[in-house]
Amino acid sequence: MKKKTRIIVLLISVIAFLLGVAFTALFMSPAVSLDFHTFSDNAVSYISFIISFIAFVFSMITYFSIDSVNSITAMDGNVLENENYSIAYEEVVDSFRECKEKETFTEELLQCVAPQKQTISCMEYADELQKIIDYIIWFAYVDLGNEAVSKRCGELVDVIKKEQQRYSKLSNGINYMLNENVKLIEYVLLYQKIRNSRTEGVFSKLENIRGDMLRNPVSKIVYFDYLGLDYRRKAAAVLDGTVKETMKKAGLNEGREFQTDYMKTVQALTLRDEQREQFDCLSSRALDCFIKAEEYAADNVLWNGYIQYNKLRVDIMRYLVFKEKTREELIADIDNTIKARKNVQFLMNRGGSYLDKMFEDETGRVLELKENFMNC
Predict the structure, then answer these.
(1) Contact 108/96 with Cβ under 8 angstroms?
(2) How do residues 120-138 score in pLDDT, each as one tens digit?
(3) Which of 57, 75, 169, 292 could lock onto 224 through a cystine, CB 3.0 to 4.6 A?
(4) Strand ranges, E, within the chain
């Protein structure tokens, strides 16, 4: 209940009590009621009034308590379950216009997503979580290998997890939904940290998220895209050791994934049946995730640029191992991805901001991938 409403109800209660006392004293006093009631009747009336007022006070306390609980737990129309929710990413990019370097961008981003240490309701807490999920895409351009930045991200996760515990006993349905969104934030940041450190053989925990409980389209895009990325890394890890060993024996420098010599080696590689099965399983799951992410992204220019590139890399690896698509089909896919990246560059350009440089780098990666693939 709002503060103003509570004050009004309290005033009415006090006025009602004072009027009750006044009327009781006036009409039920011995001087006035001597002809109608005995003193014992007056005593009973006074006692009845006091009991009635006490009952009234307790009913008001109960009313306030129920209303307070309802205010805290009410989630009707909350943003996490809004199936029509979307983001104006151009406005978000505008907010980073003045950030020209990674350091200033990182600081601005961390300030934008800094959660309140104590929210007043589930609805407000849901808004806090959604804002972090909205902005989590930009953590790809933050150095999570930096100890100070990593520490602040850890503190962010600690705050939202502690806050989630405040609502954990109110409703199982609410608790589960909030918990899955908290895990989404935690595990995406973990994925970015692992990716930044280039640690091999270590993966995030995105598979532990119950994706079906995520209702918000943006949350679903983030979930399926990053889950697909994690599966893609696992699929690449199945091949990586064998590929690098083969390259070393051939006197080639151990190149990065998707460099020409690396792709040529994969193409000529004879894999064990177990390797082929594992790679097929993981890369297929990655493709399924990216396809679902594309469905939820619909016409979102920014997300389509990311998802197409992620899906393209899986298609190329499956081509090298299984010849699943034709070379011409893949070249057409690469050209479509380049176009999608250039569209992002054009539409999101803000005159030399840090994000402009990152979008340009993203386009450069696809162009480099095309050149390497054409030489393969």
Answers:
(1) yes
(2) 888 889 999 999 999 999 9
(3) 292
(4) none
The contacts of residue 369 (CB under 8 Å, 6+ apart) are 258, 312, 313, 316, 334
Element (H, E) at 356: helix 354-374
Query: What's the Cα-to-Cα distance from 163 to each of 44, 127, 156, 340, rounded to whole Å?
Result: 52, 13, 11, 39
Contacts of 328-335 with CB under 8 Å at 24 or more apart are 330/373, 331/370, 331/373, 331/374, 333/308, 334/366, 334/369, 334/370, 334/373, 335/370
Query: How do residues 175-200 score in pLDDT, each as one tens digit?
Result: 888 999 999 999 999 999 888 776 66
Distance of CA 35 to the CA centre of its chain: 76
Q: Each residue of 14-47: pLDDT tens digit?
A: 676 666 666 556 555 555 554 445 545 555 565 6
Six token digits for residue 134? 């909205």
As a whole number of angstroms, the distance between CA 3 and CA 25 comes to: 33
Amino acid 209 reads I
Give the whole-angstrom CA distance, residue 24 versus residue 85.
59
Provide the CB-side half-sphere exposure for 274 (13 A, CA).
2
Of the candidates 136, 147, 135, 149, which has an alpha carbon nearest to the alpha carbon of residue 103?
Answer: 149
Q: What is the pLDDT of residue 115?
A: 86
Please identify which residue in the block is written with the tokens 């679903």.
220
The predicted model gives 237-266 an average pLDDT of 91
Q: How far apart are CA 13 and CA 28, in angstroms?
A: 22
Which residue in 210, 110, 117 sits closest to 162, CA to CA? Answer: 117
Is residue 265 within 8 Å of 248, Cβ to Cβ?
no
Give the burial class of 288: count Cβ atoms within 10 A of its Cβ; 0-12 exposed, 13-18 middle, 19 or more buried: middle
Whether residue 275 has pLDDT greater than 70: yes
CA 50/CA 28 separation, integer angstroms: 14
DSSP 256: P
In the chain the first and final C-alpha atoms are separated, in Å, by 67
